[in-house]
């Protein structure tokens, strides 16, 4: 018994089309709002556009070629354009990743754009529940788990040390060695003014985020660091977030 062709499968009315595109704006906007409030590079409008564009491409892939569906040699593949969105969104995510000195930021925003593209495709395909629950979980991950992560950082006794150093010394190497001997782990190092002209008398400003095991060991390490040749001054801040 042969399969019968149903042309209505490849058609969508204007109301349903409007609902899907509008929902894409709402869901993408919810995730973009969290990024916007956090002051990130890709915020409210960017996430809306990515989600809306993904939904539009999914709708195009599913319903845009319905007039050719009945042709004998035509094979409809709704997932073809969707696959290109998932791989192509990488260029936009890469634009949000910023390198400043030795610090890299924007990875979470890049990931959120990738997820928003997937949510847009889901809405475009009419997978409403999957899109909605995905949006909820992303917002929870970005907003609420961010607070949990900060509290977790408190428990790890994170600290930030800012050094002002003479440029023509090897004090940075001595600082790293001293911290390692004290059992203090450096997990982020930022050179704020490394672009200064070579031979400039301007001091080098370096920020280090470190993890402690014992507070007393940190106090002892600071005394040693202050005595290293080339260290003009240093200051610390507790509970780096």
UniProtKB/TrEMBL annotation:
It is found in: Cell membrane. Residues 21-150 form the MgtC/SapB/SrpB/YhiD N-terminal domain. It comes from Paenibacillus beijingensis. One of its GO terms (cellular component) is plasma membrane. The keyword Membrane applies. It comes from the Bacteria. Belongs to the MgtC/SapB family. It is a multi-pass membrane protein. InterPro entries: MgtC/SapB/SrpB/YhiD_fam, MgtC_SapB_SrpB_YhiD_N. Its main location: membrane. The chain crosses the membrane at residues 46-66, 127-146. The keyword Disulfide bond does not apply. This is MgtC/SapB transporter. Keywords: Cell membrane, Membrane, Transmembrane, Transmembrane helix.
